[in-house]
Amino acid sequence: MGLDVHCTFAQSILTYNFKKGKMKNSTPTTVSVIGLGNVGKAIATNLALGQHPVIVASRDFRKAKDFADTISESVIAKEITEAMKEADVIIPAIGFSDIKEFLTEYASELSDKIIIDVSNPIVPDGKGGFKKVIGEHESAAKVLSGLILHGAKLVKAFGTLGVGTLKSAAFDQSERKTLFYATDSTNSQPQIEELILDSGFEPLHIGGIDQSIRIEVFGDLHEFGNLGKAVSLAEAKIATAQSKHQIANA
Ligand SMILES: NC(=O)c1ccc[n+]([C@@H]2O[C@H](COP(=O)([O-])OP(=O)(O)OC[C@H]3O[C@@H](n4cnc5c(N)ncnc54)[C@H](OP(=O)(O)O)[C@@H]3O)[C@@H](O)[C@H]2O)c1
Fold first, then answer.
1. What is the spatial distance between Cα 179 and Cα 170, in angstroms, rounded to a whole number?
2. Cα-atom radius of gyration of the chain, to the nearest Å?
3. Which residues' Cβ are closer than 6 Å to ligand 1?
4. What are 131-162's pLDDT values in tens digits?
5. Domains of the chain with CATH codes
6. Quick one: which atom of ligand 1 is closest to the CA of 35?
């Protein structure tokens, strides 16, 4: 990477601090999005719209570079291993079956990182719908938590809306919509909330990884589950409490 790229990225941090009213030398949470399919592109674009610097990586570096160049100066393309080295938070925007392989292949690069799982463990059912590829009562995040090694922390987030809504509901002018998240790592919460806020949503922590099933497809708090749409923070809090009540009384 040449000096120009570093200058541009440093400038984008200054712009970020200025726009957010933060101290000149405060550093936004460093984040890398790995995999530039529908969701990876949407997450990186939303962060860029929120002025949050973001590193993107793809198995094809040219694809990452072309994408970064079309979005904004605060999006920087790197090779996958470099992208992981330079960020505290890693978002593999990859299909459920491929993430398992990814977590194993890059276990040492992912040491001590915060890993955000966006995946939904579903495949087309051949009838125009989707079916789960794991047990009805299992969640992708719970399954993946068994593959997290070397002090890495797992967070379930950013996959709790369909990609169309993730794009269209970001920075809602009338009322911010909610992105739920789940994690056992209390220390990771400020960084996750910063990223969700900078992506144009309100964060709401629903509990530990054992609660992830609620915010995956078919879950009671997912757009393609009981909730059915993106909701405001007030609505999200009511839905979360109601669902808890229903679960407790079931
Ligand atoms: N689509 C939705 O509405 C939606 C909503 C919420 C959550 N999700 C979840 O988000 C994830 C991505 O979905 P998507 O719709 O964005 O899928 P997609 O368009 O098929 O993109 C998946 C990307 O994963 C990357 N990839 C695949 N195998 C990889 C590997 N072995 N190592 C590194 N990267 C690999 C590829 O990126 P490169 O080609 O750039 O390497 C590919 O473009 C899935 O887990 C899905 O369940 C999807």
1. 10
2. 18
3. 34-40, 58-59, 63, 93-96, 98, 101-102, 118-120, 159, 162-163
4. 999 999 999 999 999 998 889 999 999 999 99
5. 3-249 (3.40.50.720)
6. 37
